[in-house]
Amino acid sequence: MIAYTKANTRTWSMLGSSGAFGVAAMELPEVDSSVAILTADLAFFSGLDRFKAKFPERLYNIGIAEQNMLGVAAGMAKEGHVVFATTYATFASARACDQVRVNMGHMHADIKLVGLAAGMSVGILGATHMSIEDVAIMRAIPNITILCPADCTATVKATLAAAQHKGPVYLRLSGVQNNPTVYHGDFEFTIGKANRLREGGDIAIIATGTMVFAALEAAKILDEQQIACTVIDMHTIKPLDEAAVKETLGAKLLVTIEEHNVRGGLGGAVAECLAPLRQKPPQLVLGMADSFNDPADYPYLLEKNGLTPKQLAASILARYEEVK
Amino acid sequence: MHDNTAAAAIEAPVRLAPRSDGRAFDAERCRAAARQIRRNVLKMTLGAGPLGSHAGGALSMVEILSVLYLDVLRYDVKNPLWEQRDRFILSKGHGAPSFYAALVLAGFLEESELATFKSNETRLYGHPAMNPDLGIEFSSGSLGQGLSLGVGSALALKARSNDTSRVFVLVGDGECNEGSVWEAAMSAAHYGLSNLVAIVDRNGMQYDGFTEPVMNTGDLAGKWRSFGWTVLEIDGHDVNAVHEALTTAADVGKPLAIVARTIRGKGVSFMENARAWHHSRLTQAMFDQAMAEQDEAELAASKKS
Predict the structure, then answer these.
(1) For B232-267, how does the pLDDT look when each residue is reduced to its tens digit (9 = 90+)?
(2) ipTM
(3) From the CA of B75, how many Å to the nearest CA of chain A?
(4) Which of A124, A132, B151, B161 is 20 to 30 A from A276 (CA-CA)?
(5) Is CATH 3.40.50.150 correct for B5-13+27-304?
(6) Residues of A in contact with B152 (CB under 8 A)
(7) Which CATH architecture has domain A195-323?
(8) Considering CB atoms only, which of A68, A80, A98 is closest to B184?
(9) Could you give the residue ranges of the DSSP H alpha helices within chain A?
(10) Are the C-beta atoms of B147 and B137 separated by less than 8 Å?
């Protein structure tokens, strides 16, 4: 059994999101005896070495063949397995897109597709490895639940929740080793139900993935200037917790933050939710600009895209001054 | 025509048990079934009016389907998800008209429902959609995906020691342009899926014409062999050869590929090897001629027997 102790959450944070997925994977056969994990030559990168050693019969390496992996996963899922499949987020969403669409979208294959290194964490490897549009792709395909955990503890929770969830899931993992910690112990993780982490009446910030921690830090900076922010962890991007979004309507400014293209991700989902309403606060969509970044390391790229807490606070403040 | 050299090269081929009722193979019954499938494909194509159908590619696989459904596949219409069933996956989804007509023979569908082909609110779309009630295991239409599904199914069957069921995947030769077919082929051999059979409908044509000028498939049988499969090459319109191949076990620990040489549009003179008949419509006059050709074929067959 997984213990959500402070020490464990610290260890998981050190491991990074892939490592945390690997920790949760060790529990999966307990959650569902049919569990199988497929990977496209990324068993090690997915934190699955221990899983492979303990459950060799449950791990299928499909080689560097993401399209085939999705088809094999669908075949196994049809035969009654809960199937996890891991690869880089960009290959999961873009390389195997048609297989995702037909198998997970159309046929509802019970696949839990794990997109590793989403966003900019492997930015030095280049544009081919940065995943800036995976959420947009997955959102446009019907029937796929999209999970984007805020930290490593949430990654463990999301992995176990995905295994118990009936139907296709895209699990978006981001960040690096020593991921900042949002959740220092056990907490409620319910698919489709956002977590309100901070209350404040002036600005509502809805963030997902790594940007939840950044949002909380930005809120602290704004708090020093007597601007009170609500911060919501929108760990499920689809189906969106529309009730949680609509609870923010009293704010003078609504902000969405994501480590993803500002087109088609969380910002888009929230905007689509609010667009029909007559009364709503203006929305500031923060994320990665709609362009390919030149390769660079993660901290550099976060700063270049204005996603450090300080920069976020400044952007939010500037817009808040205009609209308050 | 009946070339079974590849099959003969395997010493004393292991014969697999035919379908569960133990009835002996009846070639004439399969030929009659094939004629019925052809007639139904023509009726569906005419019935679809201006929407037409992929009749060419459907007609090349008729004998393969008739032998599969009459004498090879294990299935239970009343229990479509029967664990011990064989899994059939039509990867070349555009062969749907023949597939639906074969499902009538199998008893999954009433023949009258074929008249709804391609009409609004039908269950019989231009490409098959997953429907357990109809015995359709998976949706297909986007080419190059069925063999991966078959690999996953075969892996799952092995994992739970179901040594009875086999997985049959029917792919087109044009479809073999898709790289994902070869990803799947490689993985099937890697995992030693001796319960998996790929049947390649080698009709030599694809949308834009003959396969060689569009995208040279080269030595297709050699390709499968080099990927680690046991390979048989047969005349895909000879029901005896089809039956023999489908009941041959691959070498131990290997998947089996059957390269079935066929003719696109087989059985209808103006469709055979005609580029237009990747997908086209039938006029009443064309339909009448095509049906008359089926009658002639039946008459010729009855004289022979």
Answers:
(1) 999 999 999 999 999 998 888 999 999 999 999 999
(2) 0.95
(3) 16
(4) A132
(5) no
(6) 71-79
(7) 3-Layer(aba) Sandwich (3.40)
(8) A68
(9) 6-25, 28-31, 49-54, 66-78, 89-90, 97-99, 134-139, 152-164, 211-223, 242-246, 266-274, 298-304, 309-323
(10) no
